[in-house]
Amino acid sequence: MPFLAALSLLTATPASAAPLKTLASSHQLLIGSAVRTDPLEQDAEYRAFITKHFSVITPENAFKFEALQPERGKFDFAEADRLVEFARKHGIKVRGHTLLWHHPGAFPAWIKEREKEWTPAEAKELLEAHVRAVITHFRKQGKGTVFCFDVANELIGDQGEYRKDTLWARIAPDPVTLLDQVFRWARAADPSLKLFYNDYGIEMPGKKADAALRLLEGLKKKKTPIDGLGLQMHFSRRFRPDYAKVETQLRKYAGLGLTLHVTEFDYAIPDGDDSAETLKEQADAYAGAIRACLKVKACKAFVTWGFTDRVSYFKQDPSGEGRAFLLDEKGVPKPAFHAVESALRQGRR
Ligand code: G3I
User: Fold this and answer.
1) How remote is the CA of residue 61 from the centroid of ligand 1, in Å?
2) Which residues contact 228 (CB under 8 A, 6 or more apart)?
3) pLDDT tens-digit readout, 18-69
4) How far is 68 from 108, CA to CA, in rounded Å?
5) Which end of the chain is more exposed for a tag (fewer CB within 10 A), N or C?
6) Which of 35, 60, 233 to mutate to test the pocket of ligand 1 (most atoms within 8 A of CB)?
7) Is any ligand 1 atom within 6 A of the Cβ of residue 315?
8) Choice between 22 and 10, residue whose per-residue pLDDT is larger
9) Cα–Cα distance between 96 and 135 in angstroms, integer?
Protein backbone atom coordinates (compact mmCIF):
# COMPACT_ATOMS: atom_id res chain seq x y z
CA MET A 1 0.00 0.00 0.00
CA PRO A 2 1.48 3.42 -1.00
CA PHE A 3 2.85 5.33 2.00
CA LEU A 4 0.43 8.25 1.61
CA ALA A 5 -2.55 5.91 1.47
CA ALA A 6 -1.32 4.17 4.60
CA LEU A 7 -0.74 7.51 6.30
CA SER A 8 -4.20 8.76 5.39
CA LEU A 9 -5.65 5.52 6.73
CA LEU A 10 -4.08 6.36 10.09
CA THR A 11 -5.48 9.90 9.99
CA ALA A 12 -8.75 9.00 8.31
CA THR A 13 -10.74 7.58 11.19
CA PRO A 14 -8.75 7.29 14.43
CA ALA A 15 -8.66 3.73 15.77
CA SER A 16 -10.77 4.98 18.68
CA ALA A 17 -13.60 5.80 16.25
CA ALA A 18 -16.09 2.96 16.62
CA PRO A 19 -17.23 1.63 13.25
CA LEU A 20 -20.38 3.48 12.18
CA LYS A 21 -22.02 0.12 11.41
CA THR A 22 -21.49 -1.03 15.01
CA LEU A 23 -23.08 2.10 16.43
CA ALA A 24 -25.93 1.87 13.89
CA SER A 25 -26.65 -1.82 14.41
CA SER A 26 -27.37 -1.21 18.11
CA HIS A 27 -30.40 0.77 16.86
CA GLN A 28 -31.41 -1.76 14.21
CA LEU A 29 -30.13 0.61 11.51
CA LEU A 30 -28.08 -0.24 8.43
CA ILE A 31 -25.58 2.44 7.38
CA GLY A 32 -23.70 2.74 4.12
CA SER A 33 -23.14 4.42 0.82
CA ALA A 34 -23.35 4.15 -2.94
CA VAL A 35 -20.14 2.63 -4.24
CA ARG A 36 -18.32 2.42 -7.57
CA THR A 37 -16.66 -0.76 -8.73
CA ASP A 38 -13.40 0.76 -10.04
CA PRO A 39 -12.29 2.40 -6.75
CA LEU A 40 -13.64 -0.60 -4.86
CA GLU A 41 -11.26 -2.86 -6.77
CA GLN A 42 -8.33 -0.45 -7.18
CA ASP A 43 -8.23 1.74 -4.06
CA ALA A 44 -7.33 0.03 -0.76
CA GLU A 45 -8.26 3.10 1.32
CA TYR A 46 -11.72 3.31 -0.32
CA ARG A 47 -12.27 -0.41 0.33
CA ALA A 48 -10.97 -0.27 3.89
CA PHE A 49 -13.37 2.50 4.87
CA ILE A 50 -16.31 0.52 3.47
CA THR A 51 -15.41 -2.72 5.23
CA LYS A 52 -14.80 -0.87 8.51
CA HIS A 53 -17.87 1.36 8.63
CA PHE A 54 -20.66 0.09 6.37
CA SER A 55 -23.30 -2.62 6.75
CA VAL A 56 -24.99 -1.82 3.42
CA ILE A 57 -23.87 -0.59 0.00
CA THR A 58 -25.69 0.43 -3.17
CA PRO A 59 -24.02 -0.01 -6.57
CA GLU A 60 -24.05 3.57 -7.88
CA ASN A 61 -24.33 2.40 -11.50
CA ALA A 62 -23.39 -1.28 -11.75
CA PHE A 63 -26.97 -2.58 -11.46
CA LYS A 64 -28.53 -0.17 -13.96
CA PHE A 65 -30.13 -1.17 -17.27
CA GLU A 66 -27.19 0.08 -19.35
CA ALA A 67 -24.72 -1.91 -17.25
CA LEU A 68 -26.64 -5.19 -17.01
CA GLN A 69 -28.20 -5.48 -20.49
CA PRO A 70 -25.81 -3.64 -22.82
CA GLU A 71 -27.23 -5.52 -25.81
CA ARG A 72 -30.83 -6.69 -26.21
CA GLY A 73 -31.17 -10.09 -24.58
CA LYS A 74 -27.47 -10.22 -23.69
CA PHE A 75 -26.92 -9.68 -19.95
CA ASP A 76 -23.54 -8.86 -18.45
CA PHE A 77 -23.48 -9.48 -14.69
CA ALA A 78 -19.69 -9.72 -14.36
CA GLU A 79 -19.11 -6.36 -12.67
CA ALA A 80 -22.26 -6.61 -10.55
CA ASP A 81 -21.33 -10.11 -9.36
CA ARG A 82 -17.84 -8.97 -8.32
CA LEU A 83 -19.41 -6.22 -6.25
CA VAL A 84 -21.91 -8.62 -4.68
CA GLU A 85 -19.14 -11.13 -3.91
CA PHE A 86 -17.12 -8.38 -2.19
CA ALA A 87 -20.17 -7.49 -0.09
CA ARG A 88 -20.97 -11.14 0.74
CA LYS A 89 -17.37 -11.80 1.81
CA HIS A 90 -17.51 -8.84 4.24
CA GLY A 91 -21.02 -9.46 5.56
CA ILE A 92 -22.31 -6.31 3.88
CA LYS A 93 -25.86 -6.17 2.45
CA VAL A 94 -26.56 -4.79 -1.02
CA ARG A 95 -29.43 -2.51 -2.06
CA GLY A 96 -30.24 -3.22 -5.73
CA HIS A 97 -30.65 -0.02 -7.78
CA THR A 98 -32.64 0.31 -10.14
CA LEU A 99 -34.88 -1.34 -12.75
CA LEU A 100 -37.55 1.12 -13.98
CA TRP A 101 -36.11 4.60 -14.49
CA HIS A 102 -36.51 7.19 -17.21
CA HIS A 103 -33.01 8.76 -16.99
CA PRO A 104 -31.13 8.54 -20.33
CA GLY A 105 -27.90 7.76 -18.44
CA ALA A 106 -29.43 4.47 -17.32
CA PHE A 107 -30.51 3.32 -20.82
CA PRO A 108 -28.23 1.22 -23.06
CA ALA A 109 -27.68 2.47 -26.62
CA TRP A 110 -30.01 -0.16 -28.12
CA ILE A 111 -32.93 1.31 -26.17
CA LYS A 112 -31.94 4.97 -26.50
CA GLU A 113 -31.56 4.85 -30.29
CA ARG A 114 -35.21 3.79 -30.70
CA GLU A 115 -36.62 5.45 -27.59
CA LYS A 116 -39.37 7.30 -29.47
CA GLU A 117 -40.33 4.24 -31.57
CA TRP A 118 -40.88 1.47 -29.05
CA THR A 119 -44.59 0.57 -28.95
CA PRO A 120 -46.37 0.07 -25.60
CA ALA A 121 -46.35 -3.69 -26.16
CA GLU A 122 -42.61 -3.68 -26.94
CA ALA A 123 -41.86 -1.44 -23.93
CA LYS A 124 -43.79 -3.84 -21.67
CA GLU A 125 -41.98 -6.86 -23.13
CA LEU A 126 -38.56 -5.18 -22.72
CA LEU A 127 -39.18 -4.15 -19.14
CA GLU A 128 -40.70 -7.47 -18.04
CA ALA A 129 -37.80 -9.43 -19.53
CA HIS A 130 -35.30 -7.14 -17.79
CA VAL A 131 -37.00 -7.20 -14.39
CA ARG A 132 -37.44 -10.99 -14.34
CA ALA A 133 -33.90 -11.69 -15.59
CA VAL A 134 -32.16 -9.31 -13.16
CA ILE A 135 -34.14 -10.29 -10.06
CA THR A 136 -33.80 -14.00 -10.89
CA HIS A 137 -30.04 -13.60 -11.36
CA PHE A 138 -29.44 -11.95 -7.99
CA ARG A 139 -31.75 -14.43 -6.26
CA LYS A 140 -29.41 -17.22 -7.41
CA GLN A 141 -26.12 -15.31 -7.34
CA GLY A 142 -26.67 -12.98 -4.43
CA LYS A 143 -27.71 -15.70 -1.93
CA GLY A 144 -29.51 -13.11 0.19
CA THR A 145 -26.75 -10.47 -0.03
CA VAL A 146 -28.95 -8.45 -2.39
CA PHE A 147 -31.76 -8.07 0.15
CA CYS A 148 -33.82 -5.27 -1.40
CA PHE A 149 -34.22 -3.51 -4.74
CA ASP A 150 -35.25 -0.04 -5.93
CA VAL A 151 -37.64 -1.60 -8.43
CA ALA A 152 -38.77 1.81 -9.66
CA ASN A 153 -37.11 5.19 -9.43
CA GLU A 154 -38.41 8.76 -9.81
CA LEU A 155 -41.81 8.27 -11.50
CA ILE A 156 -43.09 11.55 -10.09
CA GLY A 157 -42.10 14.87 -11.62
CA ASP A 158 -41.09 17.95 -9.64
CA GLN A 159 -44.65 19.35 -9.66
CA GLY A 160 -46.11 16.06 -8.44
CA GLU A 161 -47.12 14.96 -11.93
CA TYR A 162 -46.76 11.43 -13.33
CA ARG A 163 -43.85 11.49 -15.81
CA LYS A 164 -45.92 10.63 -18.89
CA ASP A 165 -43.26 11.39 -21.51
CA THR A 166 -41.09 8.38 -20.76
CA LEU A 167 -40.63 5.05 -22.50
CA TRP A 168 -42.01 3.14 -19.53
CA ALA A 169 -45.06 5.39 -19.14
CA ARG A 170 -46.23 4.03 -22.51
CA ILE A 171 -46.94 0.76 -20.70
CA ALA A 172 -49.68 2.18 -18.48
CA PRO A 173 -51.79 5.38 -18.26
CA ASP A 174 -51.08 5.91 -14.57
CA PRO A 175 -48.28 5.15 -12.10
CA VAL A 176 -50.31 2.79 -9.91
CA THR A 177 -51.17 0.49 -12.83
CA LEU A 178 -47.56 0.59 -14.06
CA LEU A 179 -45.94 -0.08 -10.69
CA ASP A 180 -48.47 -2.75 -9.71
CA GLN A 181 -47.48 -4.69 -12.83
CA VAL A 182 -43.71 -4.21 -12.38
CA PHE A 183 -43.68 -5.02 -8.66
CA ARG A 184 -45.66 -8.23 -9.36
CA TRP A 185 -43.03 -9.29 -11.91
CA ALA A 186 -40.31 -8.64 -9.32
CA ARG A 187 -42.16 -10.49 -6.53
CA ALA A 188 -42.74 -13.48 -8.79
CA ALA A 189 -39.03 -13.61 -9.60
CA ASP A 190 -37.94 -13.51 -5.94
CA PRO A 191 -40.56 -13.73 -3.15
CA SER A 192 -37.92 -13.00 -0.50
CA LEU A 193 -36.59 -9.75 -2.00
CA LYS A 194 -37.77 -6.50 -0.36
CA LEU A 195 -39.21 -4.27 -3.08
CA PHE A 196 -38.86 -0.48 -2.88
CA TYR A 197 -40.10 2.58 -4.68
CA ASN A 198 -37.38 5.29 -4.64
CA ASP A 199 -37.64 9.04 -5.26
CA TYR A 200 -36.21 12.47 -4.42
CA GLY A 201 -37.96 15.62 -3.22
CA ILE A 202 -40.58 13.66 -1.25
CA GLU A 203 -38.91 14.17 2.13
CA MET A 204 -40.76 17.37 3.02
CA PRO A 205 -44.45 18.37 2.69
CA GLY A 206 -45.31 19.60 -0.79
CA LYS A 207 -46.85 18.70 -4.15
CA LYS A 208 -44.36 15.93 -4.85
CA ALA A 209 -44.69 14.41 -1.37
CA ASP A 210 -48.49 14.51 -1.69
CA ALA A 211 -48.23 12.74 -5.05
CA ALA A 212 -45.94 10.13 -3.52
CA LEU A 213 -48.43 9.51 -0.72
CA ARG A 214 -51.27 9.14 -3.27
CA LEU A 215 -49.18 6.72 -5.31
CA LEU A 216 -48.27 4.60 -2.29
CA GLU A 217 -51.85 4.61 -0.98
CA GLY A 218 -53.01 3.51 -4.45
CA LEU A 219 -50.51 0.66 -4.46
CA LYS A 220 -51.51 -0.47 -0.94
CA LYS A 221 -55.19 -0.38 -1.99
CA LYS A 222 -54.36 -2.55 -5.01
CA LYS A 223 -52.41 -4.90 -2.72
CA THR A 224 -49.27 -4.34 -4.81
CA PRO A 225 -46.32 -6.29 -3.36
CA ILE A 226 -44.34 -3.24 -2.20
CA ASP A 227 -42.27 -3.41 0.99
CA GLY A 228 -40.55 -0.09 1.28
CA LEU A 229 -39.98 3.50 0.25
CA GLY A 230 -36.56 4.92 -0.58
CA LEU A 231 -36.15 8.62 0.18
CA GLN A 232 -33.12 9.91 -1.68
CA MET A 233 -32.53 13.12 0.32
CA HIS A 234 -30.25 15.01 -2.06
CA PHE A 235 -29.89 18.28 -0.12
CA SER A 236 -27.82 21.46 -0.29
CA ARG A 237 -28.14 25.16 0.47
CA ARG A 238 -30.65 25.23 -2.43
CA PHE A 239 -32.74 22.39 -0.94
CA ARG A 240 -32.27 23.04 2.74
CA PRO A 241 -34.53 20.72 4.76
CA ASP A 242 -36.46 21.43 7.95
CA TYR A 243 -35.82 18.17 9.77
CA ALA A 244 -38.89 18.45 11.99
CA LYS A 245 -40.94 18.46 8.78
CA VAL A 246 -38.85 15.59 7.38
CA GLU A 247 -39.62 13.54 10.50
CA THR A 248 -43.35 14.28 10.14
CA GLN A 249 -43.26 13.24 6.47
CA LEU A 250 -41.38 10.03 7.32
CA ARG A 251 -44.09 9.17 9.85
CA LYS A 252 -46.77 9.64 7.17
CA TYR A 253 -45.06 7.09 4.92
CA ALA A 254 -44.40 4.76 7.86
CA GLY A 255 -48.14 4.94 8.61
CA LEU A 256 -48.69 3.02 5.37
CA GLY A 257 -46.80 0.08 6.85
CA LEU A 258 -43.74 0.64 4.67
CA THR A 259 -40.10 0.18 5.64
CA LEU A 260 -38.23 3.42 5.01
CA HIS A 261 -34.67 3.74 3.71
CA VAL A 262 -32.76 6.97 3.32
CA THR A 263 -31.17 5.93 0.05
CA GLU A 264 -28.98 8.70 -1.43
CA PHE A 265 -28.28 11.33 1.23
CA ASP A 266 -25.81 14.05 0.41
CA TYR A 267 -25.41 17.73 1.31
CA ALA A 268 -23.52 19.63 -1.39
CA ILE A 269 -21.58 22.76 -0.50
CA PRO A 270 -20.42 25.61 -2.78
CA ASP A 271 -17.15 24.91 -4.66
CA GLY A 272 -14.22 26.67 -3.03
CA ASP A 273 -16.02 27.37 0.25
CA ASP A 274 -13.91 25.71 2.95
CA SER A 275 -15.16 27.86 5.80
CA ALA A 276 -15.79 26.28 9.19
CA GLU A 277 -19.34 27.67 9.05
CA THR A 278 -20.14 25.84 5.80
CA LEU A 279 -18.61 22.57 6.99
CA LYS A 280 -20.68 22.90 10.17
CA GLU A 281 -23.80 23.60 8.07
CA GLN A 282 -23.07 20.36 6.22
CA ALA A 283 -22.44 18.48 9.49
CA ASP A 284 -25.73 19.77 10.91
CA ALA A 285 -27.54 18.58 7.77
CA TYR A 286 -26.10 15.09 8.14
CA ALA A 287 -26.97 15.06 11.85
CA GLY A 288 -30.52 16.28 11.17
CA ALA A 289 -31.16 13.64 8.54
CA ILE A 290 -29.85 10.66 10.48
CA ARG A 291 -31.60 11.86 13.65
CA ALA A 292 -34.91 12.12 11.73
CA CYS A 293 -34.38 8.54 10.54
CA LEU A 294 -33.45 7.34 14.03
CA LYS A 295 -36.61 8.91 15.47
CA VAL A 296 -38.85 6.93 13.13
CA LYS A 297 -38.72 3.20 13.98
CA ALA A 298 -39.66 2.22 10.41
CA CYS A 299 -36.50 3.90 9.09
CA LYS A 300 -34.08 1.01 8.80
CA ALA A 301 -31.25 2.24 6.59
CA PHE A 302 -29.26 5.44 6.13
CA VAL A 303 -27.32 5.38 2.86
CA THR A 304 -25.38 8.28 1.36
CA TRP A 305 -24.74 8.68 -2.37
CA GLY A 306 -20.98 8.48 -1.83
CA PHE A 307 -18.74 8.85 1.20
CA THR A 308 -15.56 10.51 -0.01
CA ASP A 309 -15.29 13.73 -2.02
CA ARG A 310 -12.61 12.01 -4.07
CA VAL A 311 -15.20 9.72 -5.72
CA SER A 312 -18.20 11.84 -6.48
CA TYR A 313 -20.88 12.16 -9.15
CA PHE A 314 -20.72 15.90 -8.62
CA LYS A 315 -17.52 15.80 -10.67
CA GLN A 316 -19.42 14.45 -13.69
CA ASP A 317 -21.17 17.70 -14.53
CA PRO A 318 -19.78 20.56 -12.42
CA SER A 319 -22.62 22.70 -11.09
CA GLY A 320 -20.78 25.00 -8.70
CA GLU A 321 -21.38 22.76 -5.72
CA GLY A 322 -20.27 19.34 -4.51
CA ARG A 323 -17.95 17.96 -1.83
CA ALA A 324 -21.09 16.48 -0.36
CA PHE A 325 -19.69 13.59 1.64
CA LEU A 326 -18.22 12.43 4.97
CA LEU A 327 -14.55 12.45 3.93
CA ASP A 328 -12.60 15.14 2.09
CA GLU A 329 -10.57 14.58 -1.07
CA LYS A 330 -7.71 13.18 1.03
CA GLY A 331 -9.95 10.71 2.88
CA VAL A 332 -9.87 12.75 6.10
CA PRO A 333 -13.14 12.81 8.07
CA LYS A 334 -15.03 16.12 7.85
CA PRO A 335 -17.24 17.48 10.63
CA ALA A 336 -20.08 15.59 8.90
CA PHE A 337 -18.47 12.25 9.79
CA HIS A 338 -18.21 13.21 13.45
CA ALA A 339 -21.79 14.50 13.44
CA VAL A 340 -23.04 11.16 12.13
CA GLU A 341 -20.96 9.25 14.68
CA SER A 342 -22.29 11.44 17.49
CA ALA A 343 -25.92 11.07 16.34
CA LEU A 344 -25.49 7.28 16.22
CA ARG A 345 -24.08 7.28 19.75
CA GLN A 346 -27.20 9.17 20.91
CA GLY A 347 -29.42 6.60 19.19
CA ARG A 348 -33.18 6.46 18.71
CA ARG A 349 -34.62 9.06 21.09
O1 G3I B 1 -19.68 3.86 -18.02
C2 G3I B 1 -19.70 4.90 -19.03
C3 G3I B 1 -18.30 5.05 -19.64
O4 G3I B 1 -17.98 3.87 -20.35
C5 G3I B 1 -18.30 6.26 -20.59
O6 G3I B 1 -16.99 6.45 -21.11
C7 G3I B 1 -18.74 7.50 -19.81
C8 G3I B 1 -18.77 8.74 -20.66
O9 G3I B 1 -19.90 8.68 -21.50
O10 G3I B 1 -20.08 7.27 -19.29
C11 G3I B 1 -20.07 6.20 -18.34
O12 G3I B 1 -21.39 6.02 -17.84
C13 G3I B 1 -21.79 7.09 -16.98
C14 G3I B 1 -22.05 6.50 -15.58
O15 G3I B 1 -22.57 7.53 -14.71
C16 G3I B 1 -20.78 5.95 -14.94
O17 G3I B 1 -19.89 6.99 -14.72
C18 G3I B 1 -23.11 7.62 -17.54
O19 G3I B 1 -22.83 8.26 -18.78
C20 G3I B 1 -23.68 8.65 -16.56
O21 G3I B 1 -24.98 9.04 -17.01
C22 G3I B 1 -23.84 7.97 -15.18
O23 G3I B 1 -24.30 8.96 -14.28
C24 G3I B 1 -24.95 8.39 -13.11
C25 G3I B 1 -26.41 8.83 -13.12
O26 G3I B 1 -27.06 8.40 -11.92
C27 G3I B 1 -27.16 8.22 -14.30
O28 G3I B 1 -27.14 6.82 -14.18
C29 G3I B 1 -24.25 8.95 -11.88
O30 G3I B 1 -22.92 8.44 -11.80
C31 G3I B 1 -25.02 8.53 -10.63
O32 G3I B 1 -24.45 9.12 -9.45
C33 G3I B 1 -26.47 8.98 -10.74
O34 G3I B 1 -27.13 8.50 -9.59
C35 G3I B 1 -28.52 8.89 -9.53
C36 G3I B 1 -29.31 7.68 -8.99
O37 G3I B 1 -29.10 6.55 -9.80
C38 G3I B 1 -30.79 8.04 -8.89
N39 G3I B 1 -30.97 9.24 -8.05
C40 G3I B 1 -30.19 10.41 -8.49
C41 G3I B 1 -28.69 10.05 -8.53
C42 G3I B 1 -27.82 11.24 -8.85
O43 G3I B 1 -28.12 11.73 -10.12
Assistant:
1) 6
2) 148, 194, 195, 196, 197, 258, 259, 260, 261
3) 899 999 999 999 999 999 999 999 999 999 999 999 999 999 999 999 999 9
4) 9
5) C
6) 60
7) no
8) 22
9) 9
